[in-house]
Write a sequence for this structure.
């Protein structure tokens, strides 16, 4: 049987780097949710500004006989505007996104209340379970509408915790997987 080297591709170094970056990113989201989200939005806005500037410049610098099919200027201006809006109005946009999400959840909850009472009318014995879930949806919708920034922070922290848990699981899996595979080929 052929003997394999411990890590023929040299991916241990890459895996360690990815794990460290993932853990740091997860911790940043968990401990500093507002600041981390702010930095991510700024980076996205700067990226949109760069894409917009590049597309706009390409429109004016490129000489092409097919200019009628060239959308670089429109894409460039749109990306520039989106980048400026994202950077300047990031807090308002974040709140608007969560308020819209809360409104959607509230509307769904109200529709489920009606569905629960419709189930009661047709003498379905467990209609109250639908009513309970509808009430939960309504309460969550109202909470999200009332406190969009707080919900955004909690959600950001949850995402950070999830990234940390996933990274730790990946590290454990990676280490145990390689031990098992190496044991299989060495024996």
């Amino acid at each position: 049987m052929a003997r394999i080297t411990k890590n023929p591709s040299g991916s241990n170094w890459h895996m360690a780097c990815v794990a460290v970056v993932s853990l740091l990113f997860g911790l940043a989201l968990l401990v500093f949710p507002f600041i981390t989200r702010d930095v991510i939005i700024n980076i996205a806005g700067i990226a949109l500004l760069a894409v917009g500037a590049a597309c706009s410049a390409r429109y004016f610098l490129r000489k092409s006989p097919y200019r009628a099919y060239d959308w670089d200027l429109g894409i460039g201006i749109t990306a520039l505007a989106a980048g400026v809006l994202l950077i300047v109005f990031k807090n308002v946009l974040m709140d608007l996104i969560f308020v819209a999400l809360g409104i959607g959840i509230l509307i769904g909850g109200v529709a489920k209340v009606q569905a629960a009472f419709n189930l009661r009318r047709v003498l379905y014995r467990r209609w109250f379970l639908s009513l309970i879930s509808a009430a939960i949806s309504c309460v969550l919708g109202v909470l999200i509408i009332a406190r969009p920034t707080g919900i955004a922070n909690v959600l950001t922290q949850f995402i950070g915790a999830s990234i940390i848990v996933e990274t730790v699981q990946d590290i454990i899996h990676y280490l145990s997987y390689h031990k098992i595979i190496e044991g299989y080929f060495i024996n």
In short: The helical segments are 11-31, 33-61, 72-88, 90-121, 127-146, 148-186. The first helix runs from residue 11 to 31.
